[in-house]
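pls design
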């Protein structure tokens, strides 16, 4: 879906305004992996931005509005190709990206669309977006977001705020998605975030999962362990049997051993199971690394 440049700029500013209402001002919660944060921009990100500009480091609390908008535009809005997303969907993906990283937000949208979740928006994803109902897509993205948030170890601290933020973003996204081209980017806000202190910090806490999934914790990984174990046992038994057959009167016949081993069905099955288990284990590990964001 392609939008006119002026419309895209208006939508960027409208979506940013909604996100900033939830991000609030300065926060440096000890449980927040983002650390010192001003209007949703963390100190590390601001340092990197100023370094690219050839500028010296300074406290993120001093960030200028122009700098803030440039970071949001290039590091979040453009990263999720929000210009090409439908109204309402752009907000759902953009705000998710600000809170948890653009690749994770894109993957959530792709899962809601039923396409490969690789974190990159290509022609297949864009075609699926064009064919999707915007309201259903917003709801699907937000369902993915809530599910992700509930598994984060700091949910006890930020969960209430995150869920309230999700409610507000979803309702605003649905309001925009449901009004088509007549949407007015004004002051309407479905759930007004009138917070202070700890409540505001709970809404803007960065939702990163710092505990990467382990292969052992997945059903594929556990199946690979069982398969590899069974294959190893079967292979070892076959080797032992073949060696016993090839050893006679203090002499070991290597040719007989190899022939016996090659014709041993347990050996063939064991090797296949062992290979399959190892491929499954390392393959699942590779996917986990690809999905980690």
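designed seq:
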């Amino acid at each position: 879906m392609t939008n006119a440049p002026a419309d895209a700029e208006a939508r960027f500013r409208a979506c940013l305004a909604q996100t900033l209402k939830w991000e609030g001002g300065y926060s440096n919660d000890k449980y927040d992996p983002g650390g010192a944060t001003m209007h949703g921009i963390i100190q590390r990100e601001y340092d990197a931005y100023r370094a690219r500009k050839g500028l010296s480091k300074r406290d993120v609390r001093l960030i200028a509005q122009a700098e803030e908008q440039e970071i949001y535009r290039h590091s979040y809005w453009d990263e999720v190709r929000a210009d090409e997303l439908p109204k309402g969907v752009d907000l759902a993906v953009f705000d998710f990206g600000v809170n948890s990283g653009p690749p994770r937000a894109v993957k959530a949208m792709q899962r809601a669309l039923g396409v490969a979740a690789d974190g990159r928006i290509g022609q297949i994803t864009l075609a699926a977006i064009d064919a999707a109902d915007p309201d259903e897509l917003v709801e699907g993205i937000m369902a993915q977001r809530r599910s992700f948030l509930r598994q984060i170890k700091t949910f006890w601290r930020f969960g209430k705020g995150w869920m309230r933020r999700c409610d507000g973003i979803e309702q605003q996204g649905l309001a925009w998605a449901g009004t088509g081209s007549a949407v007015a980017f004004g002051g309407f806000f479905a759930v007004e975030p009138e917070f202070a202190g700890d409540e505001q910090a709970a809404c803007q806490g960065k939702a990163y999962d710092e505990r990467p999934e382990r292969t052992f914790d997945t059903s594929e990984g556990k199946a690979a362990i069982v398969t590899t174990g069974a294959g190893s046992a079967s292979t070892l038994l076959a080797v032992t049997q073949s060696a016993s057959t090839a050893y006679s009167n203090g002499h070991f016949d290597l040719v007989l051993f190899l022939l016996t081993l090659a014709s041993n069905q347990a050996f063939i099955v064991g090797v296949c199971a062992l290979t399959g288990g190892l491929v499954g284990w390392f393959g699942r590990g590779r996917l986990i690394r690809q999905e980690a964001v």
